[in-house]
Every structure is written in structure tokens, then in C-alpha cells.
Design a protein that fits this description.
Elements (H helix, E strand, L loop, with lengths): L1 H7 L2 H33 L3 H16 L2 H11 L9 H27 L2 H9 L4 H31 L11 H12 L2 H29 L30 H4 L18 H13 L2 E12 L2 E12 L3 E5 L6 H8 L7 E6 L2 E2 L11 H11 L1 E4 L11 H11 L5 H14 L15 H13 L5 E5 L7 H17 L3 E5 L3 H7 L2 E6 L2 E7 H6 L4 H10 L10
Parallel strand pairs: 3-8, 3-9, 6-7, 7-8
Antiparallel strand pairs: 1-2, 1-4, 4-5, 9-10
Length: 538
């Protein structure tokens, strides 16, 4: 035992640990940088870059690390690149680790719910903002365990640096055992030293996971997050003026009893007023196909300022695609889309917009969107889901953005849930937060794509109540895809019935819903049983 302890504390072996850590650090650091580049290339829209990255991955994952180290140390000098042994070993390890780290990064990015990406696009986020504020914070948390595992693997693989005469821990252990012939004690001590190092990596991994755990409720749970690049809390504005931090009482939940529908006289007066308003949204001869399947076939739709239009029709009739085209979340094959008199997708010279320009267009054109599946940012609280995009896209200060978020949460009856993460909210609460987020930048038009289709029947009314208030009390221009027939009758000014990618019947809501002229419309309304059938996914 004394001999074992002697080897365990021998400076000769301890110095080997320093070189082991050097090679490991070079391998992981370089691998992370190169892995980021490879992951970006594979996720790129340009197939050539993706092909180069994939070829690199195949080569370096398919050849032994020991050969790569020999190549870096012995072959590179033939082309004029002479590296020290430690640097050559670190370079080889980095090149070997890069494909594995790239795949971890790519898996983390692809693992973020695509609905959140779509929501960020609808809010006007550029690809860079989306990556920095929405994708990266969530992807990093999922990659920590895998990266910890890769760090352990890199530490053990660093022992192969002995092939290029790096005096790391394994080589020194071998040399010492060869001179003393005490193989068991020396290699047991060496193995224990490796175990201590890998245990330290595991502890660091668990500590980082703990720091990034958003569900912690005790102490300063977000202190570490204050210093992350995407900053959940801005350091310089953490202490707000007293006027901005006065606590407000939590508002009562929204009443379940809907307001009475408009009378015939009120509908008539409203229709006359709307007819004099400017055009808010106009699509002409809009066509869209997915491969051989035509989804929109020359669709024309005009919506005026303050008008509420309900889109009805069976699943696959083109309702969702139409809404996504209006917000330019989908490109279209032919026809035009105008919002507020501005033609979407093209600049003043008629040139197609770039992805970044399209994002800026969404931010400025004034179209908000609410999705079927809520699509809240899972790593942000209800309040930050609303305030964050206002800061990142519209340049608001944190104080103003928080004030706006608090105001909107109050309007939807959720002030008391401002700090809750989306997964801690009910479906109805999540959708109300999503509506508040869409309203935050004061859009001129609000699109709602089956806003209650993902909700349990008992939660539908609380969301419909919010939409009723926006339509009747606020006079917001809205286009709603829905199967809630009674709701459409109460709220909508006009109904458009879609089938096969075309509007086959449209007119005043009450008139179409109570006396449809087209047999397809009549059959659909009969099947839906207006008052009883819960909303289905469309």
C-alpha cells in the first residue's frame, strides 16, 4: 500500500497529468470551434457546404485517432508544417472530436421544437436572433450530458498522444513500469488518477446542468443565466425605477360567460362602417402547391380594416396555408399578397427578398399570428415570452417591454402567472399568453390558426373569450381559421368557406351560417353540428 501511495503522489506521474490535460483541452477547444463550423455547414441552406461537412465527418469518424496523430506529427512536416508533439496531438484530437461535437450540436438544434422557430419567424426574428435567443439556449441544455460524455472520451483518447512521444500520464506510467517492473501498482495508480479526472468532469457536468435548470425555485435561481450571452436578465437594467416595479394585484380570471352576439342593427351599422375602411389584407390569384398537390388554386380574398373574417372548411382545404402565406411563413407559387398596401416578398424594385429581409418585413408590416400548438418559447417565462421579442426585434428597452408584457398579461387574465414557464401553464393559459405575445407589437392584423384546436373542451371558452374581446371591444382586424361555428357567428363580420384551395362561398357571417347557398357549405355545417362539436384540427 505504501508503494502504491508513493506512485500516486510521484511528481513524475503528476507532471504527466498536466500534459494529459493540455492535449485534452486543445482537443476539446479546437473540436468545439471546428464542430461549430461543421454543424453550421450541415445546417446551411447551401448543399455544397453540407456535402463538404458530411465528407469531413465520414473521413475523420472512419479513421483511427492514432493514425491521425501520426499524420499530424510526421506527415505535415512534408508540406512545411512542423508542430510540437503536444500541439500535433491536440490538433489531431480536435479534428477527431469535431465531427462528434458537430453531430451533438446539430442534434441539439434540430431537437428544438420547430413550432417555436416558426413563432420566432412570425414575430420578425432574423435567423441570427432566432439562433441566439430561441434555439441556442434550449439546445445547449440538452447537449450538456452529451458534451460531458465527449469530454471524458477525449480525456481517455489523449493517452494515444504517446504515439508521438508526448510524455502524458499513460506513457510515463508505461516507462516507469518498464524500469521498475511493478506493473500492477503503477498502472493501478495511473488508473486511479484518470478516474479522479473523469470524476471531476462528471461533477462539472452535473453542476452546469444544475445551473441551467429553469425549474429550480430556491435561492437566486437565475443568477448564472444573467451572464449568459442571450441574457434572460439584462445586468444593467436589473434594478428598475420604483415606478416600474410597483406590484399590481393579480386580475381575476376571465369570465366564462360570453358577451351577447351583436344585434342585426349593430351588424348592419358595423358592416357600413367597415365598407368605408381601407383594405388591410388582399390576396389575388394566390396559388400554392406542395409537390403535385395543389393547396391554393388562384385564391382571392380582401379584408378591410376592423373586419373579422372567419375561414371555414374541412381539413386540407387550405385555411392554414392561406394564413401562413399572408404572414409570409410560406412562399407561394403565383399571385400576390398585400398587407396595408404593401406587396409582400418583394422590394420596391420588384426583386425577391432575402430571408433576412423577409424577417424584417414581418417585423414592420404589422401582422401578428397565433398558432394551433401555442408555440411559446419553452425556456422563457410567460412575461419574457412577450417582452423578449419586443426587445430583440423592435428595440424596446427592458423596462418598456416588461411594462407592455405586464399590461397584456393583465388583459388576458394572467398577471399572476407572469413568471411561470410554459410547461407549468394549462393549455388555455398558454394560448392566452400566445395571443398576448402576438398583440405586443400592436399589429394591424391578427391571424389565428385554429386557436382552440389543441385545447381540451373545458379550456376552449377562456381562449374564445379573449378573442371575442379583441374583435368586438377593440375592433382589431382579424382572420380566424376555426371550426367553432357559433363563435364565428357571434364574432365574425364575414365568413369565407374554403374547399380545394378556393373560396366557394363567402358573405355576412350570420347569413352564410344560417342559410348557406353552396351544398358543400351546407354539408360541412351539418356535420359540425354548429353548437356541439368541439373544434377539430384543420
Amino acid at each position: 500500500m505504501s508503494l502504491f501511495l508513493h506512485y500516486l503522489s510521484m511528481p513524475y506521474l503528476l507532471e504527466g497529468i498536466e500534459l494529459t490535460l493540455e492535449v485534452t483541452a486543445l482537443g476539446l477547444g479546437g473540436g468545439l470551434i471546428l464542430g461549430l463550423i461543421l454543424a453550421g455547414m450541415q445546417l446551411s441552406r447551401f448543399w455544397g457546404l453540407a456535402a463538404v461537412a458530411r465528407a469531413y465527418t465520414v473521413i475523420f469518424r472512419g479513421t483511427p485517432l492514432i493514425l491521425q496523430m501520426v499524420f499530424a506529427y510526421d506527415a505535415l512536416p512534408h508540406i512545411g508544417i512542423k508542430l510540437p508533439a503536444v500541439l500535433a496531438a491536440g490538433l489531431a484530437l480536435a479534428c477527431n472530436e469535431a465531427p462528434f461535437i458537430a453531430e451533438m450540436l446539430r442534434a441539439g438544434v434540430l431537437g428544438v421544437d420547430r413550432g417555436q422557430v416558426t413563432a420566432g419567424q412570425a414575430l420578425g426574428m432574423t435567423p441570427r436572433i432566432l439562433m441566439w435567443r430561441v434555439i441556442a439556449p434550449q439546445a445547449i441544455r440538452t447537449m450538456i450530458p452529451a458534451f460531458g460524455n465527449e469530454a471524458v472520451s477525449a480525456l481517455k483518447n489523449s493517452s494515444l498522444a504517446s504515439v508521438v512521444a508526448v510524455q502524458e500520464l499513460t506513457l510515463r506510467s508505461t516507462q516507469l513500469a518498464s524500469s521498475t517492473f511493478d506493473f500492477f501498482s503503477i498502472f493501478f495508480a495511473s488508473g486511479l488518477l484518470y478516474l479522479v479526472l473523469t470524476f471531476a468532469i462528471s461533477i462539472i457536468q452535473l453542476f452546469v446542468e444544475w445551473l441551467l435548470d429553469l425549474d429550480r425555485t430556491k435561492g437566486r435561481q437565475r443568477k448564472f443565466a444573467d451572464y449568459l450571452p442571450w441574457r434572460r436578465v439584462d445586468i444593467d437594467t436589473k434594478i428598475e425605477p420604483a415606478s416600474a416595479t410597483v406590484a399590481e394585484p393579480a386580475p381575476a380570471e376571465l369570465p366564462d360567460t360570453p358577451p351577447l352576439a351583436l344585434t342585426r342593427e349593430e351588424r348592419t351599422r358595423r358592416a357600413v362602417t367597415i365598407a368605408r375602411n381601407n383594405i388591410a389584407v388582399e390576396t389575388k390569384d394566390l396559388t400554392k402547391s406542395y409537390g403535385p398537390q395543389k393547396v391554393l388554386g388562384g385564391l382571392d380574398l380582401t379584408v378591410r380594416v376592423g373586419e373579422v373574417v372567419a375561414l371555414l372548411g374541412p381539413s386540407g382545404s387550405g385555411k392554414s396555408t392561406l394564413l401562413r402565406c399572408i404572414n409570409h411563413l410560406e412562399s407561394w407559387d403565383g399571385g400576390t399578397v398585400h398587407v396595408g398596401g404593401r406587396r409582400l416578398g418583394f422590394d420596391d424594385n420588384g426583386k425577391l427578398l432575402s430571408p433576412r429581409a423577409i424577417a424584417n418585413e414581418r417585423a414592420t408590416v404589422g401582422v401578428g399570428m397565433v398558432f394551433q400548438q401555442f408555440n411559446l418559447f419553452a425556456h422563457l417565462s410567460a412575461k419574457e415570452n412577450i417582452a423578449g421579442p419586443l426587445r430583440w426585434v423592435h428595440g424596446m428597452t427592458r423596462i418598456d417591454a416588461d411594462r407592455r408584457a405586464t399590461e397584456l398579461l393583465g388583459r388576458v387574465g394572467l398577471t399572476h402567472r407572469a413568471d411561470a414557464l410554459p410547461r407549468h401553464l394549462s393549455g388555455g393559459q398558454q394560448q392566452r399568453v400566445a395571443i398576448a405575445r402576438a398583440l405586443a407589437p400592436n399589429p394591424s392584423v391578427l391571424l389565428l390558426d385554429e386557436p382552440t384546436s389543441a385545447l381540451d373542451p373545458e379550456l376552449v371558452n377562456e381562449v374564445l373569450e379573449v378573442i371575442r374581446r379583441l374583435a368586438i371591444d377593440d375592433g382589431l382586424t382579424m382572420i380566424i381559421s376555426t371550426h367553432q361555428i357559433r363563435f364565428a357567428d357571434e364574432v365574425a363580420d364575414r365568413v369565407a368557406f374554403l374547399s380545394g384551395g378556393a373560396i366557394i362561398e363567402e358573405g355576412p357571417a350570420h347569413e352564410v351560417l344560417s342559410n348557406p347557398r353552396n351544398p358543400l357549405t351546407a354539408r360541412f355545417l351539418s356535420v359540425m353540428e354548429a353548437d356541439k362539436t368541439p373544434e377539430a384540427v384543420g
